[in-house]
Specification:
Elements: H1 3-26, E1 28-30, E2 37-39, H2 44-61, H3 69-84, E3 96-100, E4 108-110, E5 115-119, H4 120-123, H5 129-144, H6 147-167, H7 171-203, H8 210-220, H9 228-231, H10 237-255
Parallel strand pairs: 3-5
Antiparallel strand pairs: 1-2, 4-5
Helix pairs in contact: 1-6, 3-5, 5-7, 5-8, 6-7, 7-10, 8-10
The structure holds zinc ion.
Zinc ion binds next to helix 5, helix 7 and helix 9.
Length: 256
Protein backbone atom coordinates (compact mmCIF):
# COMPACT_ATOMS: atom_id res chain seq x y z
CA UNK A 1 0.00 0.00 0.00
CA UNK A 2 1.30 3.45 -0.89
CA UNK A 3 1.83 5.92 1.91
CA UNK A 4 -0.33 8.63 0.35
CA UNK A 5 -3.23 6.26 0.04
CA UNK A 6 -3.04 5.45 3.77
CA UNK A 7 -3.11 9.16 4.67
CA UNK A 8 -6.30 9.69 2.67
CA UNK A 9 -7.95 6.70 4.32
CA UNK A 10 -6.85 7.89 7.75
CA UNK A 11 -8.39 11.31 7.13
CA UNK A 12 -11.64 9.82 5.84
CA UNK A 13 -11.76 7.46 8.82
CA UNK A 14 -11.14 10.25 11.32
CA UNK A 15 -13.78 12.42 9.63
CA UNK A 16 -16.37 9.64 9.94
CA UNK A 17 -15.43 9.01 13.58
CA UNK A 18 -15.65 12.75 14.32
CA UNK A 19 -19.06 12.88 12.63
CA UNK A 20 -20.28 9.96 14.77
CA UNK A 21 -19.12 11.70 17.98
CA UNK A 22 -20.64 15.05 17.05
CA UNK A 23 -23.95 13.49 16.06
CA UNK A 24 -24.03 11.50 19.30
CA UNK A 25 -23.43 14.66 21.37
CA UNK A 26 -26.33 16.40 19.63
CA UNK A 27 -28.56 13.41 20.43
CA UNK A 28 -28.03 13.62 24.20
CA UNK A 29 -31.30 14.27 26.03
CA UNK A 30 -32.44 14.04 29.61
CA UNK A 31 -35.36 11.64 29.81
CA UNK A 32 -38.13 13.69 31.49
CA UNK A 33 -39.59 10.59 33.16
CA UNK A 34 -36.45 8.96 34.53
CA UNK A 35 -34.08 11.95 34.79
CA UNK A 36 -31.39 9.93 33.03
CA UNK A 37 -29.36 11.45 30.17
CA UNK A 38 -29.36 9.24 27.08
CA UNK A 39 -28.63 9.46 23.34
CA UNK A 40 -31.87 9.06 21.39
CA UNK A 41 -32.72 9.68 17.74
CA UNK A 42 -36.44 8.91 17.40
CA UNK A 43 -39.30 11.25 18.35
CA UNK A 44 -42.14 9.82 20.49
CA UNK A 45 -44.31 9.89 17.32
CA UNK A 46 -41.74 7.77 15.49
CA UNK A 47 -41.51 5.38 18.45
CA UNK A 48 -45.31 4.98 18.48
CA UNK A 49 -45.37 4.41 14.70
CA UNK A 50 -42.63 1.74 14.86
CA UNK A 51 -44.46 -0.02 17.70
CA UNK A 52 -47.82 -0.02 15.88
CA UNK A 53 -46.19 -1.26 12.67
CA UNK A 54 -44.36 -4.11 14.41
CA UNK A 55 -47.18 -5.18 16.78
CA UNK A 56 -49.17 -7.48 14.42
CA UNK A 57 -46.01 -9.33 13.34
CA UNK A 58 -44.87 -9.79 16.95
CA UNK A 59 -48.32 -11.13 17.90
CA UNK A 60 -48.22 -13.52 14.93
CA UNK A 61 -44.89 -14.95 16.09
CA UNK A 62 -46.61 -15.97 19.32
CA UNK A 63 -49.72 -17.60 17.88
CA UNK A 64 -51.75 -14.36 17.76
CA UNK A 65 -53.87 -12.93 20.56
CA UNK A 66 -55.30 -15.17 23.25
CA UNK A 67 -58.97 -15.98 22.53
CA UNK A 68 -60.18 -15.66 26.15
CA UNK A 69 -61.59 -12.15 26.58
CA UNK A 70 -61.74 -12.45 30.38
CA UNK A 71 -58.00 -12.98 30.64
CA UNK A 72 -57.39 -10.14 28.20
CA UNK A 73 -59.68 -7.93 30.31
CA UNK A 74 -57.58 -8.72 33.41
CA UNK A 75 -54.39 -7.74 31.57
CA UNK A 76 -56.02 -4.49 30.35
CA UNK A 77 -57.32 -3.71 33.82
CA UNK A 78 -53.96 -4.11 35.56
CA UNK A 79 -52.02 -2.37 32.76
CA UNK A 80 -54.36 0.62 32.68
CA UNK A 81 -54.32 0.91 36.47
CA UNK A 82 -50.50 1.09 36.42
CA UNK A 83 -50.54 3.74 33.68
CA UNK A 84 -53.32 5.86 35.17
CA UNK A 85 -51.70 6.04 38.60
CA UNK A 86 -48.15 6.88 37.54
CA UNK A 87 -46.05 9.22 35.42
CA UNK A 88 -46.73 6.82 32.50
CA UNK A 89 -49.94 8.81 32.21
CA UNK A 90 -47.97 12.02 31.52
CA UNK A 91 -46.10 10.60 28.53
CA UNK A 92 -47.21 10.88 24.87
CA UNK A 93 -47.11 7.09 24.53
CA UNK A 94 -50.18 5.03 23.63
CA UNK A 95 -50.19 2.06 25.95
CA UNK A 96 -51.89 -1.10 24.75
CA UNK A 97 -51.63 -4.45 26.54
CA UNK A 98 -51.90 -7.73 24.65
CA UNK A 99 -52.25 -11.27 25.96
CA UNK A 100 -50.66 -13.65 23.42
CA UNK A 101 -51.91 -17.19 22.81
CA UNK A 102 -48.38 -18.71 23.05
CA UNK A 103 -48.52 -21.42 25.73
CA UNK A 104 -44.86 -22.45 25.40
CA UNK A 105 -42.66 -19.36 25.55
CA UNK A 106 -42.61 -17.72 28.96
CA UNK A 107 -42.14 -14.10 27.97
CA UNK A 108 -43.26 -10.50 28.06
CA UNK A 109 -41.94 -7.61 26.00
CA UNK A 110 -42.57 -4.04 24.95
CA UNK A 111 -42.24 -2.31 21.60
CA UNK A 112 -41.29 1.38 21.51
CA UNK A 113 -44.25 3.72 21.94
CA UNK A 114 -46.35 1.54 24.27
CA UNK A 115 -47.32 -1.79 22.65
CA UNK A 116 -46.88 -4.31 25.49
CA UNK A 117 -47.20 -8.10 25.31
CA UNK A 118 -47.35 -11.03 27.73
CA UNK A 119 -47.58 -14.66 26.63
CA UNK A 120 -50.18 -16.98 28.10
CA UNK A 121 -47.28 -19.25 29.17
CA UNK A 122 -46.04 -16.52 31.55
CA UNK A 123 -49.55 -15.31 32.46
CA UNK A 124 -50.57 -18.76 33.73
CA UNK A 125 -47.40 -19.09 35.83
CA UNK A 126 -48.21 -15.92 37.80
CA UNK A 127 -49.63 -16.57 41.25
CA UNK A 128 -51.48 -13.31 41.84
CA UNK A 129 -52.52 -10.00 40.31
CA UNK A 130 -49.59 -8.16 41.93
CA UNK A 131 -47.15 -10.33 39.98
CA UNK A 132 -49.01 -9.47 36.76
CA UNK A 133 -48.60 -5.80 37.76
CA UNK A 134 -44.88 -6.50 38.24
CA UNK A 135 -44.47 -7.90 34.72
CA UNK A 136 -46.51 -5.14 33.05
CA UNK A 137 -44.88 -2.44 35.20
CA UNK A 138 -41.45 -3.66 34.09
CA UNK A 139 -42.53 -3.46 30.43
CA UNK A 140 -44.00 0.04 30.88
CA UNK A 141 -40.55 0.88 32.28
CA UNK A 142 -38.92 -0.11 28.98
CA UNK A 143 -41.31 2.16 27.04
CA UNK A 144 -40.94 5.17 29.30
CA UNK A 145 -37.20 4.58 29.69
CA UNK A 146 -37.01 4.80 25.84
CA UNK A 147 -34.78 1.73 25.84
CA UNK A 148 -35.49 0.65 22.23
CA UNK A 149 -34.91 4.19 21.05
CA UNK A 150 -31.61 4.26 22.90
CA UNK A 151 -30.51 0.91 21.53
CA UNK A 152 -31.43 1.85 17.93
CA UNK A 153 -29.46 5.08 18.36
CA UNK A 154 -26.52 3.18 19.88
CA UNK A 155 -26.39 0.69 17.04
CA UNK A 156 -26.41 3.51 14.45
CA UNK A 157 -23.55 5.15 16.36
CA UNK A 158 -21.47 1.97 16.41
CA UNK A 159 -22.22 1.26 12.75
CA UNK A 160 -20.87 4.70 11.82
CA UNK A 161 -17.89 4.30 14.12
CA UNK A 162 -17.08 0.86 12.71
CA UNK A 163 -17.34 2.31 9.20
CA UNK A 164 -14.87 5.06 10.16
CA UNK A 165 -12.55 2.65 11.94
CA UNK A 166 -12.79 0.28 8.98
CA UNK A 167 -11.21 2.96 6.82
CA UNK A 168 -8.22 2.98 9.17
CA UNK A 169 -8.21 -0.83 9.64
CA UNK A 170 -9.58 -0.94 13.18
CA UNK A 171 -12.94 -2.45 12.37
CA UNK A 172 -12.52 -5.59 14.45
CA UNK A 173 -11.57 -3.67 17.60
CA UNK A 174 -14.45 -1.21 17.29
CA UNK A 175 -16.86 -4.03 16.62
CA UNK A 176 -15.87 -5.82 19.83
CA UNK A 177 -16.23 -2.67 21.88
CA UNK A 178 -19.54 -2.03 20.19
CA UNK A 179 -20.94 -5.43 21.05
CA UNK A 180 -19.83 -5.13 24.67
CA UNK A 181 -21.42 -1.75 25.06
CA UNK A 182 -24.71 -2.85 23.55
CA UNK A 183 -24.82 -5.78 25.95
CA UNK A 184 -24.06 -3.58 28.93
CA UNK A 185 -26.87 -1.20 28.04
CA UNK A 186 -29.25 -4.13 27.86
CA UNK A 187 -28.46 -5.14 31.43
CA UNK A 188 -28.89 -1.59 32.66
CA UNK A 189 -32.23 -1.41 30.83
CA UNK A 190 -33.49 -4.42 32.78
CA UNK A 191 -32.43 -2.96 36.12
CA UNK A 192 -34.00 0.42 35.31
CA UNK A 193 -37.24 -1.29 34.20
CA UNK A 194 -37.36 -3.36 37.38
CA UNK A 195 -36.96 -0.19 39.44
CA UNK A 196 -39.61 1.70 37.45
CA UNK A 197 -41.91 -1.33 37.67
CA UNK A 198 -41.62 -1.29 41.47
CA UNK A 199 -42.41 2.44 41.50
CA UNK A 200 -45.52 1.99 39.32
CA UNK A 201 -46.69 -0.94 41.49
CA UNK A 202 -46.46 1.20 44.63
CA UNK A 203 -48.18 4.14 42.87
CA UNK A 204 -51.09 1.92 41.78
CA UNK A 205 -51.45 0.16 45.15
CA UNK A 206 -49.96 -3.22 44.23
CA UNK A 207 -47.62 -5.14 46.54
CA UNK A 208 -44.11 -4.41 45.20
CA UNK A 209 -42.65 -7.44 47.03
CA UNK A 210 -44.33 -9.56 44.36
CA UNK A 211 -41.80 -8.29 41.80
CA UNK A 212 -39.41 -10.62 43.64
CA UNK A 213 -41.95 -13.42 43.11
CA UNK A 214 -41.82 -12.67 39.37
CA UNK A 215 -38.01 -13.00 39.42
CA UNK A 216 -38.31 -16.40 41.11
CA UNK A 217 -40.77 -17.60 38.45
CA UNK A 218 -38.39 -16.42 35.72
CA UNK A 219 -35.44 -18.07 37.43
CA UNK A 220 -37.29 -21.40 37.58
CA UNK A 221 -38.30 -21.12 33.93
CA UNK A 222 -35.26 -22.94 32.58
CA UNK A 223 -34.82 -25.21 29.58
CA UNK A 224 -36.77 -24.74 26.34
CA UNK A 225 -39.21 -22.34 28.06
CA UNK A 226 -36.52 -19.74 28.70
CA UNK A 227 -37.56 -16.12 28.79
CA UNK A 228 -35.85 -14.30 25.91
CA UNK A 229 -36.76 -10.77 26.93
CA UNK A 230 -35.91 -11.25 30.56
CA UNK A 231 -32.92 -13.57 30.12
CA UNK A 232 -31.05 -12.70 26.93
CA UNK A 233 -29.38 -9.60 28.29
CA UNK A 234 -30.45 -9.83 31.89
CA UNK A 235 -28.21 -9.50 34.93
CA UNK A 236 -28.16 -12.44 37.34
CA UNK A 237 -31.54 -12.85 39.11
CA UNK A 238 -29.74 -12.34 42.45
CA UNK A 239 -28.57 -8.89 41.32
CA UNK A 240 -32.04 -8.03 40.09
CA UNK A 241 -33.58 -9.06 43.41
CA UNK A 242 -31.09 -6.86 45.32
CA UNK A 243 -31.92 -3.98 42.97
CA UNK A 244 -35.68 -4.56 43.46
CA UNK A 245 -35.33 -4.61 47.26
CA UNK A 246 -33.43 -1.30 47.11
CA UNK A 247 -36.14 0.20 44.88
CA UNK A 248 -38.89 -0.90 47.29
CA UNK A 249 -37.08 0.83 50.16
CA UNK A 250 -36.47 3.94 48.05
CA UNK A 251 -40.05 4.43 46.87
CA UNK A 252 -41.80 3.32 50.04
CA UNK A 253 -39.84 5.95 51.95
CA UNK A 254 -40.57 8.54 49.27
CA UNK A 255 -44.30 8.07 49.89
CA UNK A 256 -43.99 8.78 53.63
ZN1 LIG B 1 -37.10 -6.26 30.38
Amino acid sequence: MRRGNFKVRLLIGLAIVAFAFIRRCSQQETNPYTGRTQAISLSPEQEIAIGLQSAPGMAQQHGGLHPDNRYQATVDDVGNKLVNNSIANKTPYKYDFHLLADEKTINAFALPGGQIFITYALFEKLQNIDQLAGVLGHEIGHVLGKHSNERITDSKYWQTLIMGAGAIDMGAVASQIGNGTLLKNGREDELESDELGVKFMINAGYNPEEMIGVMKILKDAAGPNRVPEFQSTHPYPENRIENIKAAIEKYKNALN
